[in-house]
Specification:
single chain; about 150 residues; mainly alpha; 2 strands; about 55% helix
Length: about 150
Amino acid sequence: MNAEYASETTGEQNWNNINWNKVRREVRLLQQRIVKAEQKKQYRKVKSLQFILTRSFAAKLLAVKKVTENKGKRTSGVDHQLWSTANAKWDAAKSLNMKNYKASPLKSVSIPKANGKTRQLGIPTMQDRAFQALFLMALEPLAEATAD
């Protein structure tokens, strides 16, 4: 299943050989199916399609890509883990399973405010951010469809 997105599956080259157009297309098609089911008021189908999307390897790959290529990619949580190498990103995508998942505590950092005081900022772990991105992919089509 994992090999269908990479042309060669040898070590660290897995991540670098992913066909990102194919990954995005598969996620987009599932999101479109969610919107169509919502418009037809087929709520059981919406739920099952969301389940399929959050467990698809393509969505997990895309979630890890979003988390590791954004502005906060060099900020670790309480576990001090960063997914900076291609091998770490591939392993992270394979390890995103809902089974026995429990969110980690937030890392608390004080940041300065304009008035001279400080405020607390909570920083989630890379895994928690990836799960947030994964579930956003399943919920965002519904928000877009029902907002209009």
